[in-house]
Amino acid sequence: MKAVRIHQFGPTEEVLQYEEVPTPTAGPGELLVKVEAASLNRADLSLRKGTYRVDPKDLPMIPGREFAGTVVTVGAEVSGFKPGQRVVAHPAKGGYAEYAVTKASLARPVPSGVDAAVAAAIPTVFLTAWFALIEDGKIQSGDQVLVQAGGSGVGTAAIQIAKHLGARVITTAGTDEKCQRLLALGADGAVNYSAKDFRQEVKRLTAGRGVDIVLEMIGGEVYHRSLEVLAPGGRLVSIGGAAGPIPDPPPTLTGGRKATRFSITNYLNAHPEAFKQLDFFLDMVRQKKFQVVIDRAFPLAETRAAQRYLEGRSHFGKIVLTM
Ligand SMILES: NC(=O)c1ccc[n+]([C@@H]2O[C@H](COP(=O)([O-])OP(=O)(O)OC[C@H]3O[C@@H](n4cnc5c(N)ncnc54)[C@H](OP(=O)(O)O)[C@@H]3O)[C@@H](O)[C@H]2O)c1
């Protein structure tokens, strides 16, 4: 089969090698899936550079946290899946390929009416946004929520989830065009942080009070400025630092405010049953109550261009590979 592999870590997408590799086989507890689409995530860039959870001794490896397709073979000791069934899987690697293996416990059936590219784009961003807002954010109906980087994959999911849970949502993005699209997606306010100081805008939009929750994923100065817009009792949930470091441990705050760090990988390792929350998102998407925003699809052979596009930050929502 054709796949994209990394043989050594590196700063540019040139380390991604599109090549012929042996088709994997499903062991006990596993499924072999004919991949139709895989989605890209910001973490794929860190993985390629060697700064994300992969040991050099595990190279060469096939990246691709999540994918959707059709079950080809079902390994021993698996129940509930059969060949020909459409599934989405989130095994953390292997998706940049024509065929991939996943633990059956990390796969869910895809309802008819939801296409493979859409399904492949759901797990990481919707699960992260959902559990970060609920577990650390303690989100309640009526809360005011600031979603940083609203045009990111996680941001587009978080805005819809927070609205669904009854919150009022303010978000940020780097261009007016992205802000317009975020308002169309359901945000109540959108701030172009390149043109205006988001702290003043958030204060203006909340009549000086600030927000109950910040979902923060930029890091560095943005992290520290985000603390300034927390209302008394507010929670800052940090999920990433594309632009700079994140204080570790999180700082101690006054006025009942709290800052935490959230990782969906750690959360699912500790609560494996939480993965089934994916069924809810798939059903909401089937009913067209949640929208999976896909910016562009690239063929597998053009994975380098896809990662370059992701790194360039002009995208809005998700980028997928199709096989
Ligand atoms: N903790 C977890 O479990 C978890 C899970 C998934 C993702 N994440 C993190 O959440 C963040 C979003 O992930 P994603 O895959 O949804 O990202 P993405 O689609 O690649 O979007 C990232 C967006 O962040 C904005 N941004 C602002 N400053 C940036 C900078 N200096 N460098 C890069 N981007 C910057 C950009 O939009 P503008 O140019 O419009 O600002 C960019 O489009 C990442 O930090 C990722 O690592 C964490």
Task: Write a structural description.
This protein is of the alpha/beta class. It has 2 domains: 151 residues, Quinone Oxidoreductase, Chain A, domain 1 (Alpha-Beta Complex), CATH 3.90.180; 132 residues, Rossmann fold (3-Layer(aba) Sandwich), CATH 3.40.50.720. Helices cover 28% and strands 26% of the residues. The strands form 3 sheets. Strands 3, 4, 5, 6, 7, 14 and 15 form a 7-stranded mixed sheet that branches. The chain has a 6-stranded parallel sheet with strand order 10-9-8-11-12-13, sandwiched between helices. Helix 3 crosses helix 4. The mean pLDDT is 97. NADP nicotinamide-adenine-dinucleotide phosphate (NAP) binds next to helix 1, helix 3 and helix 4.
Task: Label this structure with key terms.
6-stranded parallel sheet, binds NADP nicotinamide-adenine-dinucleotide phosphate, Quinone Oxidoreductase, Chain A, domain 1, globular, Rossmann fold, 7-stranded mixed sheet, 323 residues, alpha/beta
CATH superfamily placement of the largest domain: Medium-chain alcohol dehydrogenases, catalytic domain
Q: Helical percent range?
A: 25-40%
Q: Mind telling me the CATH class of the largest domain? A: Alpha Beta
Q: Averaging pLDDT over every residue, what do you get?
A: 97
User: Which structural class is indicated by helix and strand composition?
Assistant: alpha/beta
| Distance separating the two termini | 11 Å
Total beta strands = 15
What's the main sheet like?
Answer: 7 strands, mixed
Shape: globular
> What letter string, H or E per element, gives the SSE order?
EEEHEEEEHHEHEHEHEHEEHHEHE
Which ligands, by name, code or SMILES, are bound? NADP nicotinamide-adenine-dinucleotide phosphate
- Unreliable runs: none
By CATH, the architecture of the largest domain is named Alpha-Beta Complex
Give me the CATH fold name of the largest domain.
Quinone Oxidoreductase, Chain A, domain 1
What is the tally of helical segments?
10
The amount of beta strand, in percent, is: 25-35%
Number of domains: 2
